[in-house]
Amino acid sequence: MNGDLQTWTVVGHWENGEIQVEYVVEGAYQDPRIDTGYWEEGLFAASGQGRTVDEAIAAVRAEYEEPLRI
Known about the structure:
The chain is α+β, with helices and mostly antiparallel strands.
């Protein structure tokens, strides 16, 4: 990889207001899961960009998770 941004889809669920990552898929991905109510706060899937998977996860967290308020 030459440092270009790639799109990754972060798939997981919400727990205590935070995204719990279950897996990451390269590219844009349509989540086929059906929310059965197992996770009280619901399922989560969204795409983000980064040079690495970790950068993409951080970008998704920054966009969707609420900042900590002190």
